Amino acid sequence: MAEPSPAKVYSTGGLYRRWLGPILANDQGLDPEQLTQAALSALSQTSLRRDWPGVSAVLAAIALDLQRHDLRLEQVLFGCRFRNPVGLAAGFDKNGVAASIWDRFGFGFAELGTVTWHGQKGNPRPRLFRLAAEQAALNRMGFNNNGAEVMRRTLMKQALPSPGQRPAVLGLNLGKSRITPLEQAPDDYALSLELLAPLADYAVINVSSPNTPGLRDLQDASQLRRLVERLRRLPGCPPLLVKIAPDLEDDAIDGLARLAYEEGLAGVIAVNTSLDRFGLDGRVLPKTGRSLAEEAGGLSGAPLRQRALEVLRRLRASAGPALPLIGVGGIDSPEAAWERISAGASLVQLYTGWIFKGPDLVPHILDGLIGQLDRHGFRHVSEAVGSGVPWQ
Predict the structure, then answer these.
(1) Is residue 60 part of a domain?
(2) Of residues 209, 274, 346, 382, which has the active-site annotation?
């Protein structure tokens, strides 16, 4: 095999593969949560110092490498202008420490959080596990975050442009505090949203994480309706979306689609992590010595791809063409992103695939989408949404 060119070796993606590739190729070794925290610490300092000459030069080089600018990829959805349809999913930047620089990595939008009203430590460690061979992860983090007030201060320190004026749209993903009883959930979410609404382009009601006891009960139509109505009464409420689980039955998906229409939700994000093990029940985690069937937590990454696609298709069929959908779960290639857009997603989000594939997954997907628009004669990505046209 030919040696990679120096340009490829020293590109953002090349450096990532060189230094982190060997770590990510094994289940064991450096703890994934420690690795994430180290990355976020560096990103946090970079975000705060983004205008310093040396730092700004590095960020400019990263942006030149990873950004793609094509008017055919721009969309205006629920009042937000997305420069491209690829976003960072919630769960990585839980406290919003790198909010000001996600556009440099090529993202058209980034979703911060999940944030809760009360800061909380989350579940006991270990709680995040790599499944390298399957390009997947198991997590039972439990909404570990510093709380809404700390996030507000963190975002203010970064001196972000106002909503609508940012190079990347910023969404805020809201969850229920663990100590808050389920019947008081609407007020708990409302406290976070009321505090953070002025900083958000849009907000997401997360009722689908499997790692907070009782949280998924809020996907019940009557519970969710009560929650949505409470939040929409807040002054200055941003566009509201809801994030749903991949483990819902078809009738529950249909019910959520009806609720989204009746309550005027801005969109639906499909899907969160799954309690299904997708045939990997016997897969043993070296760190614990137990199988996936015995371990708590939600599965993400490549094994989720097909189920996430099925839920999105069902949601699109139930909701009709008007409701914006965001597809997430197992998207780790241009083909997977196109598949989700063709099935009805206006936007897609990355997390696990981005970790395994590296930062150049974003431009790789964007280049692939542009290529598909050319091949199929679409003038704009919006024409591909729900078209059913396969990857070529």
Answers:
(1) yes
(2) 209
